[in-house]
Amino acid sequence: LGDVLALAGDASDNIPGAPGIGPKIAATLLHEYGTLRNLFAQADNVKQKKRRESLIENAEKVLLYRELVTLDDSIPTNKMTSSTLFQGMSSLRMSSFDSNRLFDFYKRMELNACQNQLESRLRSSGVNYKPPPSPEEYKGVPF
Q1: How buried is 138 (Cβ within 10 angstroms: 0-12 exposed, 13-18 middle, 19+ buried)?
Q2: Is the pTM of this model over 0.70?
Q3: Which of 85, 116, 121, 129 is spaced 20 to 30 Å from 72 by Cα?
């Protein structure tokens, strides 16, 4: 999977990949050549000219992307501790929160999609929710 992500790119991690190569082409090339290193070693054998050029020109970058998409597995699991509060999956549910405070945070950080989603969920859940006042509502307030 890491080879495919490095070659095709991964938008969620801002990995651009090699230009002109998407997930299907990446999977096909890796199926044919086995690994990313083998693919670059035999890039001259790729039949499609633009694809071949893209692989040759971007080989170093794609190998760097491969390192970037690799998860660090050197964390010693025997050193990890589990919280005594953990009582199973249901204990991970979010307790009540101050929706107005969260809404205000989203607004200040300009997280408009999060703000809209929160507002929609609060309305549909029936929670007593009042959005913060708009600037027009402040016009008559003497500061």
Answers
A1: exposed
A2: no
A3: 85
